[in-house]
Amino acid sequence: MQALKFQTTIDSRRRLELDLPREIPEGQAEVIVLVPDSSNKPIEPQSDSLRALFVRLDAQPVQHLATREQVDAWLAEERASWNNTL
């Protein structure tokens, strides 16, 4: 992958626009945005949906727990099924 560096301005709608050289092919690209550090405060996500997901998961009862012996038996059965296929 080739790296290109441009200076641009982020507008009031939090959008930016880049004009790339003609030799850059169309298709997928990865964009990395570096902004000046105006404070030591990290940028908080707009929603805490991930936090809410973890709260919901923590509230759910744990199901389908297996004992160590059951896991060991399942692994032994799985390994036996390989039967020289490696």
TrEMBL record:
Official protein name in the record: Uncharacterized protein
Organism: Allochromatium warmingii
Taxon lineage: Bacteria, Pseudomonadati, Pseudomonadota, Gammaproteobacteria, Chromatiales
